[in-house]
Amino acid sequence: MEQLVIEIAGIGQATSIVLNKHGFKTVADVANASVESLSGVPGFASARSLQTIKKAKDLLKAADVQAAEKVSDSMVNKEKAVSKKPMKNKKTPKESQNKGQQEAKNKDKKAEKKKLKLAVKELAKKVAKLKAKKAVKDKAKKASSKAAKKKKSSKKPRRNS
User: Fold this and answer.
1) Residue 134, phi-psi category: left (phi > 0), alpha (psi -120 to 50), beta (remainder)
2) Could you tell me the pTM of the whole model?
3) Secondary-structure class of domain 1-90 per CATH
4) pLDDT tens-digit profile of 69-127?
């Protein structure tokens, strides 16, 4: 089943009509297009063209993965029907691999989160130091300004009445 261009993120009804008029009817048409050819469509500069092509390719990959999973699931269901023994708590190699990959991703996320927390703490310390320095500078500036005013007022001649 062909996917229409309106399924691409960022493409609405009006843009899909414009793309259709210029020969881009399906997601595959956009995914296989060059940046130059898509840039010929009104409203598509090279940056938007590149971004839209990438989104279309990602959408096609996702559709391919879903189709492969459906085929895999149907094969597993057929194997279950043929098998006399029910498959209880048996993980397919794919599920085991996915679980391992997920655990690795989770570890990476935790490590990244920890790094970010440390970076935030360090930045908070730096901000506190900078604020303290600024406060000291402001205080010194205020004191010197006050001293200058005092000096200025003491230099003015007094009028005798």
Assistant:
1) alpha
2) 0.45
3) mainly alpha
4) 877 777 766 666 665 555 555 556 666 667 777 888 788 877 877 776 776 677 667 66
